[in-house]
Design brief:
40% helix; 10 strands; 13 helices; alpha/beta; TIM Barrel; eight-stranded parallel beta barrel
Length: 350
């Protein structure tokens, strides 16, 4: 068994223009003082990483890694959530997702998609240059407007959508394979890959591509009423990354899973800071230890109520207290009886 690494912090929700969130050095020092050991980096803000340069220059990648190491931290993984979203966009969401791309690509879905694909390929090489093992992204979605089968979906619609999704991602996955990096999809509402069934449909079309893997985040499964513990039993071989994020689901007489178009505070399902929701993290960390998960436990803060700095401060200690330092021996080794085949035969009356 392996001891999970952590605690680490995904800094996407903390980056800003005010100290200490306005530069890599400052946020490293802040995170280190809270007790974090690693940072997961988004890749669209040049103040924190120039993704193209990290892919093309090993010297730059080493310098970037050195800055984080000098603060007593490690880079755990890179993230291309927003770029991955743009690999597959249904036309209904074109205008809304334009903000994820450079301004010169707005109103140009084809060029925006090409840019997103190239960003993913840069991320594969940058991850290799940084000595990383895994990377996280979103799958994007061509089918999300049709997630509920009403009006009745025409025959073949879902199959065609997943065929196209796999076609777009296969060349990207091959680049990740060339660079020795696992590409982990965060299964998330709004993405075509949002649960185990959708992931399996995708994986089948990829011929079970070894680099198509999962970032496990139980908060998204709480909101879907999915058994997030059994999910680990089923997919543990594909779980290469995790976000430690809490959530709660409190259906009532007015709303359930769909949330009645309410804002986050007023939804039946909402994200919470660690320890304030309903996720059974003791069982999650136990299962991941049992299955030899060898990655990082990364805090992702998203809470409808609590201040982010409080969530980060409490979250570092929360993760630290849930990581299981795995045992190197069985608890009853002290009474182990020596023996050989003859002794075993004797015990069995053979």
């Amino acid at each position: 068994m392996k001891t999970i690494k952590g605690p680490a912090l995904f800094i996407a929700q903390f980056i800003g223009d005010e100290l200490p969130f306005n530069s890599l050095e400052n946020i490293c020092n802040w995170a280190k003082n809270l007790g974090f050991k690693g940072l997961q980096l988004p890749t669209l803000d040049d103040r924190f990483i120039n993704l193209k340069l990290a892919a093309e220059s090993k010297t730059y990648a080493d310098e970037l890694k050195g800055k984080v190491n000098d603060a007593g931290l490690e880079i755990t993984e890179l993230s291309t959530h927003l770029q991955g979203q743009l690999v597959a966009v249904h036309p209904a969401y074109d205008d809304l997702f334009d903000s994820f791309a450079p301004a010169e690509l707005h109103k140009n879905p084809k060029e925006r998609q090409k840019w997103a694909v190239q960003q993913l390929k840069y991320a594969a090489k940058a991850s290799q240059n940084l000595g990383l093992k895994a990377h996280v992204t979103f799958s994007g979605a061509l089918l999300w407007p049709y997630v509920y089968p009403w009006p009745q979906r025409p025959s073949g619609l879902i199959e065609t959508g997943f065929d196209e999704l796999a076609k777009r991602w296969k060349p990207i996955l091959d680049v990740f394979d060339e660079n020795g990096i696992d590409l982990c999809y965060e299964l998330h509402a709004g993405e075509d890959l949002h649960d185990g069934s959708s992931f399996e449909m995708f994986l089948e079309r990829l011929g079970n591509h070894k680099r198509a893997n999962i970032l496990y985040d139980p908060s998204h499964f709480i909101l879907q009423c999915l058994d997030y513990l059994e999910f680990i039993d089923i997919y543990h071989e594909r779980i290469k990354m995790m976000h430690v994020k809490d959530a709660e689901f409190n259906p009532n007489g007015k709303q359930g899973v769909y949330g009645g178009y309410q804002n986050w505070v007023d939804r039946a399902g909402r994200f919470r800071s660690l320890g304030d929701g309903q996720v059974n993290f003791k069982s999650i960390f136990s299962k991941l230890a049992q299955y030899d998960y060898e990655g990082w436990a990364v805090l992702e803060w998203e809470c409808a109520l609590k201040h982010p700095e409080d969530g980060a401060n409490e979250g570092a200690e929360f993760i630290k207290n849930h990581i299981i330092r795995v045992t190197e021996r069985a608890f009853d080794d002290f009474v182990q009886a020596g023996g050989d085949q003859n002794f075993n035969n004797k015990l069995l009356g053979l």
